[in-house]
Amino acid sequence: MIGLNHYLILSGLLFSIGLVGVLRRKNLLMLFFATEVMLNAANIAFAAASHFYGDLTGQMFAFFIVAVAASEVAVGLGLLIVLYKKQGTLDLDDLATMKG
Fold it and tell me: Is the pTM above the cut of 0.70?
């Protein structure tokens, strides 16, 4: 039977993968994908703990995280498109030397 520990281990592994992606990636689009993986890992942990304890608080937190992730995608991808049209790249090393 799958218990709370299994979900928390899965959540921890996904969060670790996302954290490595945030720390290692140089492309802004991949950085956004890595943060989405981290947010989804938190969703799994909140939903599993909520189900285990029989309380809806964790599921409500997961719902708000989904809303934050959706707004991040909407605003962030819009900014990335504008940045790519202006600079021609999404590489963080190239963008660090921005000229005014």
Answer: yes
